[in-house]
Amino acid sequence: MTTAAVVGIGDISANHLHAIGEHPAVDLVAVCDIDPERAEAAAAQWGVPGFTDVDTMLRKARPDVVHITLPHYLHAPVAEAALRAGAHVLTEKPVAESYAAGAELARVARESGRTLGVCFQNRYNDSSQAMRLLVDDRTYGSVVSARASVWWHRDAAYYASSPWRATWREAGGGVLINQTIHTIDLLCWLLGAPEEISGVAANLTHRDITEVEDTATVAMRHPGGVTSVYFATNCHAENAPVEFELVFESATVRLQDGQLLAATPDGEVQVIASDLAAEGERSYWGASHARLINDFYAHLSAEQPFWIDADAALVSLGVLRDTYVASGLVPADAR
Ligand SMILES: NC(=O)c1ccc[n+]([C@@H]2O[C@H](COP(=O)([O-])OP(=O)(O)OC[C@H]3O[C@@H](n4cnc5c(N)ncnc54)[C@H](O)[C@@H]3O)[C@@H](O)[C@H]2O)c1
To answer: Among 116, 153, 218, 223, whose CB has the most other CB atoms within 10 angstroms?
Structure first.
């Protein structure tokens, strides 16, 4: 059995705890949260020791794998502590709160000889995998351009429930880094790391409740002259399904309400893939956490390393850094 621990028992931790609980070859051995009530409640629910201090947990429980579901500014220091203790790490996105911290973590991970994976679970959606195949197989010719948009809602209660989310220091940004980095990651994964980035970000309607940006738009030029345009906002009245479109030479492929549709010039529209519907209030997170977590564990004993490592995760963080700097939201030398 591979042993696992989860650090940070907040909103997303349930996805990790349930995936571990359902994995036949992974044994949860510890949970950790700085809040004793959360640590105790999770410890009781899962029947494992609960800790309030990461270093103590690493020393006493000695997990093979540490899942990091913490505020962004704690990803890198806790990941580094876990790697130095000899554990593999699966951290929630983003890899760190800034590009500089993420790049340093990538270096530490390489030197550690351990695996560091980053939770970009939307790459495992059926629609994402189908788009990957269409790009690689050139079923509809080359991809020419893409557009993606995310219209979501975040209010004062959301930021009040976890105040770190509202700050540059602890979150490293707003809608770009916290809610919609997945969509930037998908664009860069499907079309290649951008060679040109032109982005703007601003806080339009949340100035009273957060200092970070709530709206952003980014235009990118990817290898081969492929272009993409992206828009994201937290100012909408509800969490609408993510919109994603790839324009190929001979078809337009569009993600619409969880279905991937290919429209060809003869007027035909074909369903290429349907995403598993996630349930509940947080359905916008998608249903692919368990897929990514199972794949991460499969790669611990495989010849090929797990593919979404710190370097892979730095691509989207680089897009954010350039956008924040260009928008005057952070100084260029601070990132
Ligand atoms: N992949 C996704 O779709 C997805 C969705 C939601 C959140 N996330 C990510 O998950 C991470 C956590 O987000 P969340 O919304 O669950 O946050 P949260 O605020 O709900 O939970 C964070 C938890 O960490 C604990 N914590 C803070 N400092 C600690 C410390 N020093 N030691 C131990 N515990 C500590 C807090 O007490 C809290 O329980 C973030 O990186 C976020 O971006 C990812």
So the answer is: 116
69 lines ligand 1 (CB under 6 A): yes
Q: How far is the CA of 273 from the centre of ligand 1 (A)?
A: 31
- Residue nearest atom 28 of ligand 1, based on CA coordinates: 34
2-121: CATH, from 3.40.50.1480, 3.40.50.720, 3.30.390.10, 1.10.10.60: 3.40.50.720
Partners of residue 36 on adjacent β-strands = none
pTM comes to 0.96
Contact in structure between 230 and 249 (CB atoms under 8 Å): no
Which residue, 197, 210, 129, 98, is CA-closest to 163?
210
Q: State the distance from the centre of ligand 1 to the C-alpha of 192, rounded, in angstroms.
A: 29
The alpha carbon of 280 is separated from its chain's Cα centroid by a whole number of angstroms, namely: 19
Q: What is the atom index within ligand 1 of the atom nearest the CA of 52?
A: 33
> Which sign does the torsion angle of CA 172, 175, 177, 178 carry?
positive
